[in-house]
Write a structure and sequence with these properties.
1 helix, alpha+beta, 17% helix, five-stranded antiparallel sheet
């Protein structure tokens, strides 16, 4: 999957640079390494094929898929959170020092 994500980012970069003037905003839609569209914002997932990747100008990635065959297609955010959630406190606090 990592190679296909890198390839999608590269395809999006090449498409953006090839435009006159170059396009920095919006999302480039890529499927199997091929440019298939551009959108100002994430379009309805039903309009695209499963496996499409949307590449934002800042490199963020979104994937069209479904959690199960019964669910509708949806965009999934492939980007890690900017600030990971804090770690939960220890279940058992440290014991106080022993008395001398």
């Amino acid at each position: 999957m990592h190679d296909s994500l890198t390839a999608a980012r590269e395809r999006a970069r090449l498409w953006r640079e090839a435009q006159d003037p170059p396009v920095a905003d919006g999302l480039v839609i890529v499927l199997d390494g091929l440019f298939v569209g551009w959108a100002a914002e994430l379009p309805p997932a039903e309009q695209w094929a499963p496996g499409c990747l949307a590449v934002a100008g800042d490199g963020r990635l979104f994937l069209i898929d479904r959690r199960s065959w019964r669910e509708p297609l949806a965009w999934f955010d492939l980007n890690p959170p900017a600030d990971p959630p804090p770690s939960p406190p220890d279940a058992f606090p440290p014991e106080p020092p022993a008395a001398p």
